[in-house]
């Protein structure tokens, strides 16, 4: 064993300036995937939105440039450019120093999303270049950075001036760094969805969008004067609604609360929470306060109207929220989030404020709108009945099926019971399943073969979902139950495997199987995806063996094309894998199972509203929207030719 290096004072390193961001980008933007890439845009846009909340910005323009950069421009006050007490222009301090900004002072911003003061500097640190133009005090002030470091000389300690102007605002252009990100191509679809969402949350704000990479003439404008009421209408545009949107509003303890609710005939809950315009993917105290208060109000009405008798149990929260689409937006002067990406709100006073507003305002609305009240309670009644039926089905499921070892050719479990080390591969077909069982590391790798394509849960009722043999086997194997609109017994702490890996052939059928499985997880076990437990294996398409040297696996046609260019004068044999079943156990281990050499893609939900819409379009029963989506995005497909 090699001798360990001495641990002394020389081992202690201090990361200067923005080095820490470049060293650990995931701490600041969540990931270096496309989700993290798009987050750079959101950080700059959120700063402009904060100017709007302060009353100084009415228009934001976002442009995806042809050269791969992004430009965000606003008509706010402009970043301060005067000399800071640190001896440099305040603007340069904002873009080069973590935790520097005007949002620590409640006088400058009463409510803001970028309260950590790291957004602008993080974007700067993770960009090849950033160009900043500030229109303020009658002049256009200019600064420029390369990977976070200023490369423009100051003039008498101040920023150089490009010219005069009567306008105010800030324009930021940045190019993401390919050394940091897995891809540097922004997703226009996801960015547009986020900008539209921001417009709904700020009805007096107008946001323009250009994607010069595709159509230089197209200019989209997002302006939503109906606010979050328009938001829920948009979320329910493909559903049969049973109520008009309900809007509740109030302020408590200095916290502004807005709630919009609408019910559909589809028994599925979609409740989204925002704090200071930031979407909180993992919810938080404002959602807890809303759910608790609304459940209490509806149960009180149900007893008052005789729908619930004296001996009847109250409706559960999921009963009452089945069919509900809701947007809860709070403006908090001092929010506390979990993590820089602000996925969960943690303020207890947000729960109290939301609960108080809902408890007071919901009765005011429903006392005057009895038909809407009856529709909501009717949804709760239907949900309670289906929940009880589902509970019986779950009981039968658990009674008939056990956590087994290769029972009836199904689960071939691993030896270890340490969930943090274990992983389960869902493999299509007996041939591939047999090879995988032979190739795996039995200590920590489990294999679950499935036969053919599982049920499309987007089109099926809950009783059919629970009756499907393949789905029942997966629910039992995972060990954590499942979530759905008729009651929720999902417990992520009982999950038996840290990684759930979909292992399907690299062809159309394999893609379809993977999509069906992801639809199941997304609709009935979303926490698996949200907590980062779902992966897709990336088996190679080819193996090339040169006359001299070692063979190499290639994962797509692009890699094969590059290999051909590198070996123009060399001869090699090419083997194409039509399916996992064609690989012998050693090849399967080396390419797909071995943690040291395999490639996995972790599944993430970048935009929950957009993800739900696309799942409904692609996997639902309505054909015309699916055709339209396919035609629109056909150019984005990677074809196997």
Number of helices: 20
Residue windows where pLDDT falls under 50 for at least 5 positions: 1-15, 102-106, 401-409, 631-641
What class would the helix/strand composition place it in? alpha+beta
Number of distinct beta strands = 24
> What separation lies between the terminal Cα atoms?
50 Å
Fraction of residues in β-strands: 15-25%
- Describe the largest sheet: 9 strands, mixed
CATH topology of the domain at 19-222: Heat Shock Protein 90
CATH homologous superfamily title of the domain at 19-222: Histidine kinase-like ATPase, C-terminal domain
Task: Summarize the amount of helix as a percent range.
Answer: 25-40%
CATH architecture of the domain at 19-222: 2-Layer Sandwich
The radius of gyration is 27 Å
User: What is the overall pLDDT average?
Assistant: 84
Tell the overall outline: flat
- CATH C-level name of the domain at 19-222: Alpha Beta
Explain briefly what this protein structure is.
This protein is an alpha+beta fold and 641 residues long. The chain has 20 helices and 24 strands.
Please characterize this protein's 3D structure.
The chain is of the alpha+beta class and 641 residues long. Among the domains are: 19-222, Heat Shock Protein 90 (2-Layer Sandwich); 227-387, Ribosomal Protein S5, domain 2. Helices cover 36% and strands 20% of the residues. It is built from 20 helices and 24 strands. Strands 1, 2, 3, 4, 5, 6, 7, 8 and 9 form a nine-stranded mixed β-sheet that branches. Helix 3 (34-53) runs antiparallel to helix 5. It is flat and about 75 Å long. Residues 1-15, 102-106, 401-409 and 631-641 have low confidence and may be disordered.
